[in-house]
Amino acid sequence: MNKQARQQQTSINSSSSSSYISYYIYNNNTFTTTTTSSRRSSPTTLSSDQYLRYSKMDPSSLSNPQDAKVNSLHLVLDVEFATSRLVGYVDVRSVLQSDSVSTLILDSNNLEISKVTDLENNPINLGAVHSIFGTPVEIEIAEGQRGKNKEFNARVYYNTTPSSVALQWLKPEQTAGKKHPYLFSQCQAIHARSLVPCQDSPSNKVTYSAQITVDSPLTALMSALSTGKKENGDKTVFTFEQDIVIPTYLIAIVVGNLDSRKIGPRSHVWSEPETVAAGEFEFANTEKFIAAGESILTPYIWKKYDVLLLPPSFPYGGMENPMLTFVTPTLIAGDRSLENVVAHEIAHSWCGNLVTNKYWSEFFLNESFTVLLERKIIERLTNNEMFQFESINGFKHLQDDIDTFGHDNPLTALRPNLDGIDPDDAFSSVPYEKGFNLLCYLETLVGVKDFEAWLKAYITKFAYQSITAQQMKDFFVEYFEQLGKKDAIAVVDWETWFNAPGLPHTCCKFESKLADTAKELAKKWISTKGEGFNNDSEFKQFNSAQIILFLDTLITETEKEKLSVDVLEKIDNLYKLSETKNSEYKNKWYTLCLRHGIQKIEPLVVKFVTSQGRMKFTRPLYRELFKVNKDLAQSTFKTHRHFYHSICSKMVAKDLALE
Ligand SMILES: CC/C=C\C/C=C\C[C@@H](O)/C=C/C=C/C=C\[C@@H](O)CCCC(=O)O
Ligand SMILES: [Zn+2]
């Protein structure tokens, strides 16, 4: 046997408690497998010492871009609906950062890795499993291949497993068309490692390309340009190219029976044929949003901006996957009233996708700038009133989340310590809204004109990079000192803004007459107990932000002194809230009713939380239901848990004390 023929590679069944290693022996162009339990000395669980050793740069990753920096990935994968697996390999190209580097470490989670090859026949060693961060894949670099600035390339053969968190596999009956299966991914924050072995840290940016084989007539799309489509028997092979560097959490894939409609010069909406017309109508303002973003910041660099309208279990409102934003169907209100989510995802084209948080603990760098730009885009297309109003509603959301987490909870700081913490557990509106308040505060200190010039300079300076909050702060201070505004910005207490838990210590004042009107109507209902209300004349003039604030005000203002069932029924009779199709109104109305013990709302709540899996709605509503009817909440979730994306079912299970 020559050297290549003796090639032995390992595969660890990491999901099994009694791990085994399969040795693949290459002979006569085939691989045979032998299994042993004696060759694996590493423990099955990563100790905290080992975790610290692996995660020394980024606490959310066990990989080592500081030693061997991965620059590109090439994925070659077959999409196997029958086994709910992606099967194939990834070519990983890295550059060694010093002479002493002897290992390339990738993140993986719930993957089965069968072998690693390179020209030098290097061995692979899978590390122990960490329950949150997965299994480090250590690839030894042969002595002859070591050396600063040398390229090191490896091919990792692997398959995903049904436990790969990034992926949700839908059966035909779970789709709108009921005929074809469907697959989609959600990689943010740390789930790309369950789709492909990679350095899954936002500190490291890569380009990627892919060749994806699917059953005909299904279509595959990725967060990349489509570069080809070839029929091959009963299969279709799609190729993709993303040549702009991105963090791995922006790798995305969808496979399904997909149709598209053009909605702008650089945009299509994609979805199952049954829903594409609704998407075409709802997201018709896409180009206006992109153009407004360009007028505020810099030219849009991502060549195209498509929107994918997903099946209802998609766990978020939207996900800013480059070139192909993923959105929930709960945005389909029929009147474009929830289109600000598209403006938000477009804003990520600059904030997050171009300038990226280096660590998840500084997620506010992505989200606060995005919320600010989203609101500036809406402002440019409407008026300042809408900017103010959305900021008021956002602050309410922040108050609710801080109440839920607890005002002293360290996770309510803008820069929480995420060592050993699952980013999904830390997720809240804090990075969005508290971060937005910081930026608004900074804007009031220096003035809108200069602040917007700084925003443009910030994006230009840090484009294509991953940065820290310290870099953002330093650039702000340096920029405004040079502009002669040293005194104006000297008052900023950065330490408190960044690290103190709870609500912002300095609050911006947002004012809107429309908001006042909505609050007044709610307060009038409370003070009069519904006396004198005979029609919906005031309510029917409200825009969606007003309806949300009206309901929010009823919720907060009746915390101590509840309304009677009769008053709530009168509100419902006049405003038809139980009949609404708008997901945001449902969320608020159902919360209000559950908090008032209106039992007849429970079937509607159950219907809503089992017909869509957007965590913004499912998590709080399950929690509310749990408070009033624990059995119903738990049994509903148990019956429907496989409907949800696994990120959502993981979080709801925790919320309902089922873990
Ligand atoms: C402070 C650090 C907290 C978290 C770290 C980062 C990511 C958290 C992870 O759970 C992923 C989040 C993905 C979010 C995607 C889209 C959101 O903007 C949607 C917001 C809610 C909604 O509208 O449904
Ligand atoms: Zn966002």
UniProtKB/TrEMBL annotation:
Predominant location: cytoplasm
Keyword terms, alphabetized: Cytoplasm, Hydrolase, Metal-binding, Metalloprotease, Protease, Zinc
Keyword Membrane attached: no
Pfam family, one: Peptidase_M1
Co-factor binding details: Binds 1 zinc ion per subunit.
Coiled coil: none
InterPro entries, A to Z: Aminopeptidase_N-like_N, Aminopeptidase_N-like_N_sf, ARM-type_fold, LTA4H_cat, M1_LTA-4_hydro/amino_C_sf, M1_LTA4H, Peptidase_M1, Peptidase_M1_C
Cofactor(s) demanded: Zn(2+)
Positions that bind a peptide: Q186, C187, Q188, P315, Y316, G317, G318, M319, E320, R614, M615, K616
Active site location: E345 (proton acceptor), Y432 (proton donor)
Tree of life domain: Eukaryota
GO aspect biological process, one term: proteolysis
Residues involved in Zn(2+) binding: H344, H348, E367
UniProt GO MF annotations: metalloaminopeptidase activity; zinc ion binding
Location in or out of the cell: Cytoplasm
Domain Peptidase M1 leukotriene A4 hydrolase/aminopeptidase C-terminal: 513-656
GO cellular component: cytosol
Family in the record: Belongs to the peptidase M1 family.
Name of the featured protein: Leukotriene A4 hydrolase
Gene source species: Cavenderia fasciculata
